[in-house]
Amino acid sequence: MNKTREAECRKKAKDLVSKMTLTEKVYQLRHTAPAIPRLGLSAYNYWNEALHGVARAGEATVFPQAIGMAAAFDEELLGLVADVISTEGRAKFNIQDKYGDNGIYKGLTFWAPNINIFRDPRWGRGHETYGEDPYLTSRLGVSFVKGIQGDDDKYMKAAACAKHFAVHSGPESIRHSFNAECSKQDLRETYLPAFKALVTEAKVEAVMGAYNRTNGEACCASKTLLQDILRKEWGFEGHVTSDCWAIRDINEGHGITSSPVESVGLAMTNGCDINCGNLFEYLLQAVGKGYTTEERIDEALTNVLTTRFKLGILDEDENGNFVSGYNTESDNPYASIDYTHVDSYTSKDINLRMSEESIVLLKNDGGMLPLNKNNIRAIGVIGPNADNRKALVGNYEGTASEYVTVLEGIRREVENSGTRVYASNGCDLYKPKVEPLGEKSDRLAEVKAVCDVSDVIVAVMGLDATLEGEEGDTGNAYGSGDKPNLLLPGLQQEVLDAIAASGKPAVLVVLAGSAIALDKASSQFKAIIQGWYPGALGGTAIANVIFGKKNPEGHLPLTFYSEKNTLPEFTDYNMKGRTYRYMTEEPLYPFGYGLSYTDFEETVTKIVAGPDAYRQVNGELDRNNIYYKSGADSIDITVKVANKGNMAGAATVQAYVDYTALNLKGAPVRQLKALKKVHLAAGEEKEVTISLDENAFGLFDENGEWKLNPGNYKVYIGNQQPDRRSEELTGKKCMGISVIVE
Known about the structure:
The protein is α/β, with parallel strands linked by helices. The protein has 3 domains: 3-339, Glycoside hydrolase, family 3, N-terminal domain (TIM Barrel); 352-558, 3-Layer(aba) Sandwich (Rossmann fold), CATH 3.40.50; 600-741, Immunoglobulins (Immunoglobulin-like, Sandwich). The protein is built from 22 helices and 28 strands. Helix 2 (22-28) crosses helix 12 (294-311), helix 5 (134-149) packs parallel to helix 7 (193-200) and helix 15 crosses helix 19. The longest helix is centred in the first third of the chain and has 24 residues, at 75-98. It is globular and about 75 Å long.
């Protein structure tokens, strides 16, 4: 959308606000905004969800959960997914508005994406995020927002929302009273970069405040976050919404204020524009008591209504009267999107592609996978997630027109090959027995029987969104949505022990939205697949990978810790020892890791840097070191990627900057700073170019100030991270380039 059109929308919004009474203004600032017939304003509910598909409003395409889509490491594909989501959102809005349904989950203001950093694997909502890395989260978040909001000059397709601002990643059980304390260094290096990228690059329309406090300030009423950083430093021009009922936490949970009137006054004054909840009704009293002003309320409502004008669901007619809602005669290209676009064949094709790209092959000893179904007389599919629809979708999900579980996907794949499929759920997901009146391990004998009659076993274990998710939403066995530990729950490991003891070739498929410590399973199984929550068609995607119709190409967007690793306290927001960027212990499976059925070879073919990038040493040009100064041109590195195997696949060229030689206090060990995904046919070669500018080398110091520190840096490029564990698992090393910053 161009700037002229944005200014026009804001002017119209300001004009509309000027015609309202204070009472009318206040009630427009709740997520359930009522109609004002005299002004042509229809009712509108700002609360809608679209984390991985239009959610909670009937049929829609259900894509893999966000953490799975992150594993694809594919910005372009995620943008395509977001475009499908906004298309379906428009189709559903148009028909719902036509028939007078403007309730919750029916609007075009989508409260997604969740770009919090998955800093601790116990956090229940981590599967809503794009993982543990600020750079990957930034790139994927920008792509998602652009896909949601569209690229029309005059109208926004749908409005995206960056949440939860900021420094929010559990624990869920105390989020309404918790104070997340972090250093200025960690705030800038870890917790804010993705939000900044979405605001400054993607022009995200909305930002949602978190439930918790950050360094003593309630996030939904934080002058530091909402005024100093978001508005003044980053130039944010959209609207800010509270998380749902978070305003009441300011007095009830955090004890910052002593009454709801003070809470809403503080939130409004410090930059919260709209309240998910009903506490903003107290704004009338807050103005009367001097806790906030009507001028600030006017500003907030102008911010909020500008979004509706930009969407084209609120406008002026030729007579200067305001009209709102679905309008087929509008010049808005999105107003004509009809219901046939919902979960269409095209949407399903993109969904399956994303499901396939998200799958990560963690282990494949001896090339056990892919399986040849023509050589298998009988296959056993065992585990509580084998036929579990909930394990396909994660949370904040819609209703798909079709679901394919792993068991169903395998059955469909082998149905014409004469292979018989035996199945057992093996155990409950977390309870000690399947049947309420049964005895402990009441499916273990069946597991052994299936192993006896099968040639190959596929074990499907893990979690689902009843075990990890949002507090108050999940209601899981552990109470809050967070995990108590990283182990497979219940009797799942006991079932894996029985499968391993059978001696039959076996594949482990893990459906979960977070890292599980798979130490024992890794010693028992020759092949392990991380399938995440793979979406409505996830069973088809996983079967395609198991039987070689699709080459796995996913990479881990988070560290898979070993049982031997030491995790800091869950409530400690210091990044020391957390994630691949700061941990010094060796993980089980590292960030950025993922195997393929084919073999890729990467070679640096060209490096283009500034005119002073190379120096004379002993009378000869030194090509071993690149010299770099602040403000210099980017370093452009061309990499040739060759598929040396006999199967088509995709490599993800990852560039990491290593800072260890600088020996700076609080600095990360290394960070991902560029990536390019390339698809190659068997035997094919392609060149990709990645660029690194000063932002790749600069770091934030203890005062939160960005600095380009002089010293020796190492840039590593490969299909993985340059750590010892990745080298051990893949048998490959990354290419290293020395950069000397002056």
